[in-house]
Amino acid sequence: MNRLSLSVVVPAFDEEECIGACLDLLCTQLDCITEIIVVDNNSADGTRDIVRRRAADHPEIRVVTETQQGLVFARNAGMDAASGDLVARIDADTRVSDDWAATILDFFAADVDQHWAAACGRGEAYELPYGDAAARIKARWSPLARRSPSTPGVRDVPVLYGSNMILRRETWKLIREDVSLRRDVFEDVDMGLCVQKSGGRNAFLPSLTVGVSPRRMESGMRSFVRYMACLPRTLRLHRRHALAAAALVLYVPGVSVLHACRLVMIRAYDSDSGSFSARHLLRPRTDRGMP
Q1: Phi, psi at residue 162, to the nearest 5°?
Q2: CA of 155: how far to CAs of 99, 159, 207, 228, 242, in Å?
Q3: What is the CATH number of domain 6-213?
Q4: Is 261's pLDDT higher than 90?
């Protein structure tokens, strides 16, 4: 049986601080990864130069340019350009684990009946003062996940997680014209719901864990609430009105309160020294923009 091929798509807009580390970790797994496609989405910093230096040593890396601004456009350009049987999409600040690519290939190779159209895993924010405690609680108690009786340990979920998700190339072709191009919705939630609408199923693999940047967690309250409001908007787009109402009334207020509680702690924490200081609260910060 021929081995499945895996493409990895990395959209990038002004990511010079993290794209190098992301690519270095991917390049340690080139025995399992066929190609790495970095989509430059009008970067004005050193992102493209960093990628080119990595590509000089690893021809599996190539750059695709997308001039229309926005994550959805960069994502689509990368997914369209991918040639692998499986197409993974991660963020430029994602740090994959050592067995990430092998885990993906093993899972889909074992799925000979193609029970699963797509898959995703967990994302744990790195360099946080309280570690991954919040991620573990969320993974255990999430009301959106239910265990699959056909694949022990795997959960059937309605949505995908953008920092760590994989689609069969046929699945992407099937939903390509249905995914939203709006920038005020969660594009990964939209993709997962489009997979379901097409008759496919999304698998959640607890063992497929990556590190993600806590940059969004450092955003001010107004910016964070504006970002989280994308969830009920996405659900309404797919006519999941009951879920949208629950997200608007329960989830968004709840996660906003959580964000308010952790914001002072995160901003007071210095990951380089591992210490807290009130003076860190005075450091200039720029809120993470909409994707």
Answers
A1: -60, -25
A2: 20, 11, 11, 24, 22
A3: 3.90.550.10
A4: no
Arithmetic mean of pLDDT, 213-218? 80
Strand (E) or helix (H) holding 35 = strand 35-40
- β-pairing, 202-212 with 155-157? antiparallel
Coil, helix or strand for 103? Answer: helix
Helices (H), 28-144: 47-57, 71-81, 100-110, 133-141
Number of H helices, E strands in the chain: 11, 12
pTM: 0.88
The Cα 248–Cα 243 span in angstroms is 8
Question: Which run of H or of E encompasses 45?
Answer: none
Q: Give the integer Cα–Cα distance in Å for 39 and 42.
A: 9
Q: How large is the average pLDDT for residues 202-228?
A: 90
Single-letter residue type at 185: V
Q: Is the pLDDT of residue 112 over 50?
A: yes
Sign of CA dihedral 73, 245, 158, 23: positive
Q: Where are the domains of the chain?
A: 6-213, 221-282
Q: Which of 164, 188, 163, 177 is nearest to 72 (CA)?
A: 188
